Amino acid sequence: MKPVIQVSNLSKSYQLSHQNKASYNTLKDDFARIVKGPFGGGIQNEKETFWALKDINFEVNQGEVFGIVGKNGSGKSTLLKILSRIVDPTTGAAIINGKIASLLEVGTGFHPELTGRENIYFNGSMIGMSKKEISSKFDEIVAFSGVEKFLDTPVKFYSSGMFVRLAFSVAAHLDSEVLIIDEVLSVGDIQFQKRSLNKMTSIAKEGRTILFVSHSMSNVKQLCDRALLLEKGKVKFVGETEFVTDQYLSKNMFPGSKTGFKNNPDKPAQFISIDICNSAGEAVDALEQDEPWSIVLKYKVRKSLSSTVVALEILNNESQPIFMTTDTDFSKKISPLEPGEYKAKIDFGGLKFVPGSFYIRASIQSPGVVAHDVRENILLRVRQNDQDVRLTYFKGKYMGYLSTKIEWDIKKGS
Question: For residues 212 and 225, what is the distance between their CA atoms, to the nearest angstrom?
Fold first, then answer.
């Protein structure tokens, strides 16, 4: 079978300019530069060639869901822009057999002055669909997006969540052979993310091809058949999803102790740090088997947030959630989260995990609204106790994930 996407020796370079003297000049220096400029005495710029991508090779087959992972700055966005025919490569080629629908960032393919209704037709015509074809999908697109009330409003007035819901719905429902989806889905609320992932699964079963970029390894593992890991503009690994995501996680895990995050004043709420602490309350890189432990979350709230929940999940090495706890008693009305700095200690006490590697995900979320902050891939390591004899009974493998002691009350007879 001929691949739907063929990328051969693909490279992309940009020219960066650097001044050869300090950028901070006095008014006298600036005046002298302006005067001397026409006579060749001005500041010269030095040029540097930056390779955003270098010698990229891979193929994607029809009906395949192909993941692309990598740190920020690894070249993912540049690659998708080339595949979406937004920019041209410097060298090499990217051949795509079929119509392409792309959702790379908020605003892709939409005109801000047009209404939601007009943009559905505009976007469909951009990928070569007739008005009749678009009309046949129109009701389905609108129902999935959930923006019926605002359909005749210019999209420049949409919230980022509304924008993404409509943009994804258009891209997913129009008849393109290749669907390219970037991390933009993280802007939507959790329920919409789940619906979108389910929709992509059904799209793949129809024989359409999907390129999916995400920092969520659980989503990549759930959705993708194969994946590619980019590192500094080069292909580091390409192959089975589990292998590629494990390679990514091993290189990009945050240590469990003293994990601080950069301040982002644009967020209404954000985590400051996440620490894994031992029985003495000290932040540690790994826990000893069977010792009491806790997780300490520090977070900042910049404005009053209604119905907001702080949640903590623990995932196994397959990126599957195995435990969850929240700060909220859902049997009562959820109180607003008021501005200030908070420190939450989650004491796990007797809840213990078998030796191995686990991952922590923490979120600050208002139901039905974009997640205010999500932190993933916090490494939780549990070391094996040399005296543990369970492996003798279970052929060298721990069964399950929890190692909590449970009392058995055994009596002979009925």
Answer: 11
